[in-house]
Write a structure and sequence with these properties.
With 663 residues, this protein is mostly beta strands. Among the domains are: 104-190, no CATH class; 252-324. It is 1% helix and 46% strand. It has one helix and 52 strands. Strands 23-24-27-26-25-28 form a six-stranded antiparallel beta barrel. Strands 5, 46, 47, 48 and 52 form a five-stranded antiparallel sheet that branches. The radius of gyration is 29 Å and the shape is globular. The relative contact order is 0.15. The model is unreliable at 594-639 and 648-663 (pLDDT under 50).
């Protein structure tokens, strides 16, 4: 009898849902994708590997962003304790890891050198200038000179954008003009716009400021919602030049030549300033704490307190004042050029004026509550004649914002209203959103995960049919870690990926993949390549960039013991404090006083708290009485996470792609 050969035309995709024999697809696979090679059906092929860019990154990363600069691609990584950047060339070779610093108003300075030859007196409203160079401006101080040297410096106006350890001085002309020289001050503490937290989850974008800074800016926002998606804690929007490594609070700016009169609530500006508006917080020499702009008419500002009552200045001067729009949100940031939008609690959507990151007061700037739930993510969308436009996802809604200036009423009549610039349309108020990092745009279509299904927006909101692994994904997702779900895309193979923590995992261990070209689904089979905490898709740099959370423990402090606990410390817990001494750098610790215990930032399977950079000192043990403690580092190791990029491989059948079989 002639034997017959039956072709098993297994269809592309890995179907995890359903029973084994009720399928026309593969039933299992690891690190395999499907691609057509001229036939009717896509065939399995091995996914590429990945190469290491850097293995000393602090982490785990809670947000990765890539910006092309000249011949390099800046890879940014935000983590609990700060922000780092590594420039990478188009071959994937990095040129050195850099730590970002955070700038803000000066709180205190240290006198490194009091100088000589200054005229003895007490001087007020003294401008502080750089003895070297830096990003700050506008600081003022009261300076005491005794014995020809500076003996005391008290900050009376903090200015903006100063960084801890900046070196400052003051002109002799403002200190009596007696020929003194040699004063060197060091910024000891600042009012930092950044708060270190294990809850930080980062969002990034870029913006071209054409009015104020006249520079390309990096925008960054660390939301404290990594463990609780609807956490309502507001944190500052950060910005800084793309070519720099300093970020400061957006919407906080300094104005020179402000005339303040003792006993008066009136401040007079030298020129009209469109950035200033009612409600802004005001600080500077002679301005009491908790003072705000009550009103502004031309160049005249009226000062009030939080209740709207007039506030009188306590000194007369012509000085530099700072005005703060207090741009602090719980959601994130997106650029809809030439505007920056921020979002957060109670459906808040707010934007700056065109081309000016510090102007949130002009007519085209706006603030509205467009939904009831917290806004979690925003992305640009094609607006046509109503460009720019954007989509904003809340916990239960999708909102479209578009530029649509219009005036209501007849000019010159009582019913005329000022121009409105923005239109807010609720696309749906009965949707869901699993994770703020779980949405991605692919060729103008937006894909995301709800709490129980996969969704897209292509002009209308639709469910993405998924009979392959929808139950596999949602039944095994660790919902307590839902904010760690993140989406990316691999355009070369037509894929949208969602990384997620599976089972009781607290970090991502698997990924489900939607192949748009072949309309099929598969997953990574919990391969090592799915152990990624954040990433960014390929653009100019042709490979996707991803951050692993596995730990490199070479040459950093792993554990310590206390040899001298010291005395006189104020009882409290002090987090992320720098450790100094020895030949190493970058270690910091959590120190508990009162209990006489010490927690070093160590690495184990659950903790990623030893970092590779020096955080600006934050009032460490603020009631110290000439005391100290000593530690012995018993194991010296280096801690870091790895940044990798994907590498495509030749067309081969993956050994771990299993066909449907018939016994």
């Amino acid at each position: 009898m002639t034997k017959k050969v039956f072709a098993l035309d297994t269809r592309p995709g890995i179907q995890r849902d359903g029973t084994i024999f009720d399928k026309e697809f593969y039933t299992d696979g690891r690190w395999v994708r499907f691609q057509k090679f001229g036939g009717d059906l896509a065939r399995p092929r091995k996914m590429g590997g990945y190469r290491e860019i850097v293995n000393t990154l602090a982490g785990p990363s809670r947000g990765v962003f890539v910006v092309v600069r000249s011949q390099y691609n800046n890879v940014y990584s935000g983590y609990n304790d700060g922000l780092q950047v590594v420039p990478v060339n188009n071959n994937g070779v990095g040129s050195g890891l850099q730590d970002y610093k955070f700038g803000g108003p000066v709180l205190t300075v240290s006198i490194l050198d009091g100088g000589t030859g200054y005229t003895n007196a007490t001087y007020t409203n003294v401008p502080l200038v750089y003895s070297t160079s830096g990003t700050g401006l506008g600081a003022r101080a009261t300076v005491v000179v005794a014995g020809g040297a500076i003996t005391s410096v008290t900050i009376t106006g903090g200015g903006v954008r100063y960084v801890k350890d900046d070196l400052l001085t003051a002109a002799d002309a403002n200190l009596g003009g007696g020929g003194g020289s040699g004063l060197i001050l060091q910024v000891a503490t600042i009012d930092s716009p950044f708060i270190a937290s294990d809850l930080n989850s980062w969002q990034f974008d870029t913006f071209t400021d054409t009015v104020g800074y006249q520079d390309n800016l990096l925008l960054a926002h660390p939301s404290q919602d990594l463990q609780d998606i609807d956490n309502e804690t507001n944190t500052r929007l950060l910005c800084g030049p793309l070519l720099g490594t300093v970020l400061w609070a957006a919407g906080l700016f300094a104005v020179d030549s402000c005339v303040v009169a003792n006993g008066s609530s009136i401040v007079t500006l030298a020129t009209i300033n469109q950035r200033i508006a009612a409600g802004q917080r005001v600080k500077g020499y002679g301005i009491p704490a908790n003072t705000f702009v009550g009103s502004i008419v031309s160049t005249t500002i009226t000062l009030v307190d939080a209740n709207g009552a007039a506030v009188n200045a306590t000194a007369s001067s012509t000085t530099t004042l700072t005005f703060d729009n207090q741009i602090s949100i719980s959601g994130g940031v997106v650029s809809l050029h030439p505007y920056v939008f921020v979002y957060g609690n109670d459906g808040l959507i707010q934007n700056c004026s065109a081309g000016d990151i510090d102007d949130w007061a002009s007519a085209d700037a706006n603030r509205v509550n467009a939904a009831t739930g917290k806004i979690l993510q925003g992305l640009p969308v094609r607006g046509g004649s109503n460009a720019p436009a954007g989509l904003f996802w809340s916990l239960d809604s999708l909102v479209r914002v578009s530029f649509a200036p219009q005036s209501l009423g007849v000019p010159g009549t009582a019913n005329f209203a000022a121009t409105t610039y923005w239109r807010y349309d609720i696309i749906t108020s009965q949707s869901s959103f699993l994770s703020s990092s779980g949405v991605i745009e692919y060729d103008g279509i937006y894909f995301w995960t709800g709490v129980d299904r996969f969704l897209l927006y292509n002009g209308v909101t639709k469910e993405i049919p998924n009979t392959f692994n929808q139950n596999y994904f949602f039944d095994n997702l660790n919902y307590t870690q839902r904010q760690k779900v993140w989406a990316t895309k691999v355009p070369r193979f037509g894929e949208v990926w969602w990384f997620y923590p599976r089972g009781d995992a607290t970090e991502c261990t698997d990924a489900v993949i939607y192949n748009i070209r072949d309309n099929t689904w598969y997953d990574t089979g919990e391969a090592l390549g799915a152990q990624r905490s954040a990433g960014y898709f390929s653009q100019v740099f042709r490979f996707p960039v991803q951050a692993g959370y596995e730990v490199n423990t070479a040459d950093a402090i792993n554990n310590v013991s206390i040899t001298d606990a010291g005395s006189g410390y104020a009882d409290d817990t002090y987090s992320y404090q720098d450790l100094t001494g020895g030949t190493g750098t970058g270690a910091n610790a959590t120190i508990r006083c009162g209990e006489i215990t010490f927690n070093c930032k160590h690495i184990d399977a659950l903790n990623f708290i030893l970092t590779n950079f020096m955080l600006p000192q934050r009032n460490l043990l603020h009631q110290r009485i000439n005391s100290y403690f000593k530690i012995n580092a018993s194991t010296i190791k280096r801690c870091g996470q790895r940044i990798t990029y994907g590498i495509p491989t030749s067309s081969v059948i993956d050994d771990n792609a299993y066909c449907r079989t018939i016994d």
